[in-house]
Amino acid sequence: MPDSHLPSVDELLSIAVNALGGSERQGQITMVQAVQKAIDDEEHLAVQAGTGTGKSLAYLVPSVRHAMDSETPVVISTATIALQRQLVDRDLPRLSEALGKELPHEPTFAILKGRRNYLCRYKATAGWPEEDEQDQLFDPREVSATGRMVQRIQEWAEETETGDRDELVPGVSEQAWRQFSVSAQECLGATRCPSGPECFAELARARAGEVDVVVTNHALLAIDAMGDMPVLPEHDVVVVDEAHELVDRVTSVVTGELSDTSVVLAVRRVGRLIEQPIADQLMEAGEDLKALLTAAPPGRIDEMPQVLGLTLALVRDTAWRCVTALGPRNADKDDPDKAGQRKAAFMALDDVHDTAVRMLEAYGHDSETDRAEVVWLDSGSDRRPPALRVAPLSVSGMLRDKLFGERTVVLTSATLALGGTFDGLAAQWGLGDSKSWQGIDVGSPFDHPRAGILYVAKHLPQPGRDGLPQQYLDEITELIEAAGGRTLGLFSSMRAAKAATEALRERLDVPLLCQGDDSTMLLVKQFAEDEATCLFGTLSLWQGVDVPGPSLRLVIIDRVPFPRPDDPLTSARQRHVAAKGGNGFMAVAANHAALLLAQGAGRLLRAQDDKGVIAVLDPRLATARYSSFLLGSLPPFWRTTDPAIPRAALKRLATEG
User: What is an example of a GO molecular function annotated in this UniProt entry (predicted)?
Assistant: First the structure.
C-alpha cells in the first residue's frame, strides 16, 4: 500500500509542472493516475500518449514516489539513446530539483548500459586474446584510422571517470572499441579480475543499486530478464517507454548467428590452450560451412538440406570437442591472464556450439504450428560474410514468463493502439490472454483535424518494385513547390530515397539533403535551421526526427511500409500465425505497416503551433480492404484524396512563414 506520509502523485505532478514552468494537461493527469493505480494494484498497463502529452513526467512522478515508498529502484527502459539522454540530462535533474523538498530526499538516478559500453581497465592494460582484424587487412587507410582511434581511447582511458563509451566525442569504430571492452560472458568477474575493485561496469552497476531511478535500454532489460545472472538491480516496477520497439529489440537480443568468421574467431581464441589437431578439426568444419554458405541462395530455410544438417552437426561436435579439451571452466582462476584467455575461448566456442544446436533443433516438427524458430541465410555484403541466422517465431512466451511474470510493467508510446486497439501489440508482448493488464489512450493535446491534413494520392498507380514511378516524382515536386521546401520525405528503402533525391535535385530550386550525405544528427540540424531545406531518408529516420516549427510543414510517405515479402523472419511469422488459424497478414504485416505509418505521421506535429500536411502517395491507403485498419492507427487528421486541397493549404502556410 502507498505511504500516506508521501504526497499524492497529483500533488507531486502539480508541484513539478509549476516548478518547470509548464501547465497541467488532462492527458498527463490521466496518465499519472493510471500509472500510480497500476503500481498500487500490481497490474500491467499500456498507455498510448500522443506527442505533447508530457508522458515522461507522467511516469517519472509515480516512479519516483514508488521508489521512495518501497526503497527499491524503478527501472525505466527506452529504445533510443536520444531518449535516454533526455531523461538523464534534462527530465530527471529538473524533476529531482523540483520534488526534493517534498520527498524524504532529493530523487537520485543513474544510467546503466551493457558491459560492452564500458572501458575494461584490465583489457586496456593486460594481454588479451587479439580480436579478429581481418576486416582491416584489405584497406591500409582503415588500419591507420583504427590506429588513431585506439590511441585516442588510450589517452581518454587515463582521464575518464566513468569509462562510458558515449563520452568519446567524436565516436570511435566498433573495431577500435572492441580492443578495450568485454562482453558479460568474457568478463572474469569482479572478484577474480585484478581490476575488479575499479571496474567501470561494476561501479556503474553499484551506483544503479543505490538510486531511485535506473535508466537503461530494451536490450539490457531483455538480457536481465532472460539471463541467468541479473544485470539490473533488484526492482519490482519497470516502465518501458518507446514500447512499440520492445518486440524487435528483444528479438535482436535472442537472434543467433553462425558464419565461418565466428568459427575462425573461436579457433583463434582457443589458440594454444588445446592440442592443435583438435582445433584443426573445428577449423576444417568452419571451412566446410564457408563453402556451403557461399554457394547457397539467401533466404528462409524451411527444410534442412541434408548437406547443411551434416555440416552443422560437424560444427557442433568439433566445437564441443574443443570445449571438452579446454578442461574445467574455473581452471587457472589464480592467473588472470590465462583465466581471461580461457573465458574468451569458452565464450566463442559456446556461441558456435549452442547456435548450431539451435539451428538443428529448429527442424523435425510434425506441423508448422509446432515450429518455434526460423533459420535463414543472410547473403552478407562486401564487409560481412554470408551468415546463418536463427530467431524465435514469437517472443511473447519469453516476455510473459520472464518480464511480466516477475514485476509490474508500464508500457507507453505515442503509438500502441493499432487499428484502434491494443490487442495486436498485447499479443506480441504475451499479454493477449492475460486479465492482469489494461490499455488506455490518454489522447493528445493537438487538435489534429484543425492542425493537419492527411492526403492520400488515390489517383496515383500502386507502387511497383522498379523504383519510383514518374507520376510519384511529379507529385512530390508539386507538393514541395507548394510548401516552399520544408519537407521531410520518408521512403520505404534507401534506394528509393536516393533515387528521389537525384531526380528532384535537378527539378527543385530548394536545398535537398539525403540520409547518408552526413551524420543524421547534422542533417536534421541543417534541415531545422533552414526553412527552405528538404530532407529525404528511410525508415531509420522516422523515429529520430523532432523538428517543431515552420521548418517542417510537409511529411511525404512514398508507400505503405509493409515488410518485404522476402523478409525471412516476418514472412515466417505470418505463416506461423496462419497455421494456428489466425490472419497472418493482419497480425504481422499490417501491424508492422500501421506502426511505421503512425510513427512517420507523428513527425508533423511536434509543438502546439505546428501545422501541415501528411501526404501518402500509395493509393492503397484509400482503396485496399485493410485501409480502415491502417487509417485507424493514425492520428485523426482531416482526410482528403483531392490533390488541390493540400497544395492550397501548403501555399497558405508558406506565405504565413
Answer: helicase activity
